[in-house]
Amino acid sequence: MKQETKTLKILATSDTHGKFVPWDYALNAESLTGSMAQLASAVKALRDENTLLLDAGDTVQDNSADQFITADKGRIHPMIAAMNAMRYDVWVPGNHEYNFGMDVLKRLMGQQEARVLTGNVRDAKGAALADAYIILEKNGLRIGIIGMITPNITRWDTVNLKGWQVSDPLEETGKLLKELRSQSDVLIGVYHMGLSNEYGTPNSGVTDILEHCPEFDLMIAAHEHREVSGQLIGGVPVVENLYQAQTMAEVVLTLGRGEETDGKWKVTDRKIRMIEAKEYEPDPELMRLLAPYDEQARRNAEVLIGRFEGESLSPVNEIAQIPEAQIRNTALIDLINRVQMYYTGAAVSATSLSNLNANLFRGPIRRCDVSLIYRYTNSLYKVKMNGRQLKAWMEWSASYFNTWHPGDLTISFRETIRAYNYDVFSGVRYEINLSKEPGNRIENLTWADGRPVGEEETFTAAVNNYRVTSQLCVPGEIYGEGDVPQLLEMDVHGEIGGIRELIGDYIVRVKGGILTEEQENNWRITGIDWNPDMRRKAVRLLAEGRLAIPSSADGRTPNVRSVTERDVAAAEPENV
Question: 416: how many CB neighbours lie within 10 A of its CB?
């Protein structure tokens, strides 16, 4: 039997997060780092008759695209309009597609011309949200494609998923593989999950999947916003894309069939590369299609809502890579917490720094500028808790910092904890002693009048939906089973919008359009005793670029190790 060969090209995207044209609406400025319009040009240049275009989710949220979800229910969302114009073959919704409720997700799915796959989400009656797989044909080849979502959506969208079952993706995959492999010449996974497990949840990363299921020929991962270009796991190549349409994976598979393969098609070669969207001009046709959405989003971004009459909400960072708002009290964080307490009437509020460069400077405030204060589209929740639960939450949050040791000249952050998992609290006074190990750092916890917060004293707290559904009202990271705070109210003042919209409403309606610097000065870091002269030298050497602040291996967590006196001595030995 003569050896035959065929080729198949796969173009894969994910985590495009609302970037339909090259514009950042939060900054209200051009952003050519990536967009669907640029990817459309890349797809036109690369696509041939043997090409599949696949996406692994997190599509409709971020970059002000959320406004199109609820504003006009009869209108196709711009991201889905872009995908339809680009002729996607498969879409697997990501975790952020669940943020707006299941009815909204179903409506978005109905707008898609691509085949929607999700094999591990079912309603209370066992009916699947979408098909688990599809078999497509290209170049005479049968391509089986399986789609799954990380099971951790039950952490992030507990309330939205009430009445729905999210099963183990490995178990679901195992059920499908034997039958599907026999019906397919090529088997591809499109899984909205990263490489590694999250929160210790088994099978929430594609590594667990592929170590048990090496039958795949390609795995398209997502969720972590990292560039992965063909890393082999269990012998299976994995690709994953950067955030907001910056990259697209191109995979070219060569298959052979002959006597040595028992007459079956087998992958004999793979060529994988990452396409950078910034190398492509926006596609004119797609730009014309999306122009009405772009115009609406820009008008919305430009609306004046007030004026800031202070100098800045957060001081300029003494060290560029170490946000001041994470190491001392600032008007920036206090504003967010003040808004959350105002709209809930809660005694305590907590928020994280949603953008490490978040700030606001003297001058007019446009609607888009609120995104510079609060990046995410979270909604506001209200919970009931006691002092013991609050202390446990605060200790969990304070584990963000590395322990301070003599000779350290900077405060640093634990590599394994993301910035959005460090909360700053208002309504109480407290200290974080960094000379102590995690779990024992919160000291002098009192109410504003100096009265200690009692362990069994109950009160309400204001916090975003992500924290409630990920850590506060689910057992695991902070609390044991049966010991979680009580959720009292979701989407507080949802008629106004989420936290970002509430901040805008607060500026307009409560503050009369005039915002000033207001600080609670209710917390501080203690337990550090660095040499002032050596500290000044470290700051100068960092500014000069002669010392560097180390970041995590994936680049997502800055400042993972303290600069020390030894580092200064090595950089400038003659002046130590």
Answer: 11
Q: Are 409 and 565 in contact (CB under 8 A)?
A: yes
Give the domain CATH number at 159.
Answer: 3.60.21.10
443: nearest Cα among 430, 454, 453, 434: 430
Name the region of 406 (left: φ>0; alpha: ψ -120 to 50; beta: rest).
beta
Q: List the alpha helices (DSSP H) in 20-168.
A: 36-46, 67-70, 78-86, 102-111, 153-156
pLDDT of 564 over the 90 cut: yes
- The rounded percent of the chain whose pLDDT value lies above 70 is 98
Tokens of 510: 């409560």
- Give the integer Cα–Cα distance in Å for 453 and 487: 20
Retrieve residue 335's tokens: 């504003």
Q: At what angle do helices 78-86 and 284-302 cross, to 10 degrees?
A: 170
Which tens digit of pLDDT belongs to each residue from 474-508? 899 999 999 999 988 877 886 677 898 899 999 99
The verdict on residue 501 lying in a domain is yes
Burial 526-546 (b: 16+ CB within 10 A, else e): eebebeeebbebbbebbeeee
Q: How far is CA 273 from CA 186, 229, 249, in A?
A: 19, 6, 6
Which stretch of 70-84, 188-202, 423-437 has the lowest confidence by average pLDDT? 70-84
Across the range 368-373, mean pLDDT stands at 87
Number of C-alpha atoms within 13 angstroms, CB side, residue 205?
14
Question: Last residue of some domain: 269, 296, 323?
Answer: 296
Give the span between the Cα atoms of 426 and 516, in whole angstroms: 18
Report the pLDDT averaged over residues 438-444.
Answer: 98
Model pLDDT, residue 81:
97
Please say whether the beta carbons of 515 and 306 come within 8 A: yes
Instruction: Name the band, by pLDDT with cuts 50, 70 and 90, for residue 252.
Output: very high
**Does residue 505 belong to any structural domain of this protein?**
yes
Q: What separation in angstroms does the CA of 53 have from each of 11, 234, 251?
A: 5, 24, 11
Structurally, the chain folds into a number of domains equal to 2
Collapse the DSSP code of 555 into the 3-class scheme (helix H, G, I; strand E, B; otherwise coil) and give the result.
coil
CA distance 177 to 77: 34
| Residue 312 pLDDT > 90 | yes
Summary mean pLDDT of the chain: 93
The whole-number pLDDT of residue 522 equals 98
Q: What is the CATH number of the domain that holds 414?
A: 3.90.780.10
Do 401 and 442 contact (CB within 8 A), yes or no?
no
Domain assignment of residue 575, yes or no = no
**Farthest-apart Cα atoms in the chain, separation:** 88
Co-location of 259 and 346 in the same domain: no
Amino acid at 55: D
Q: Whole-prediction pTM value? A: 0.70
Q: Is the pLDDT assigned to residue 357 strictly greater than 90? A: no
pLDDT at res. 355: 82
Q: Which residues have a Cβ under 8 Å from the Cβ of 86 and sit 6 or more positions away?
A: 36, 39, 40, 43, 53, 286
Q: 332 near 515, Cβ under 8 Å?
A: no
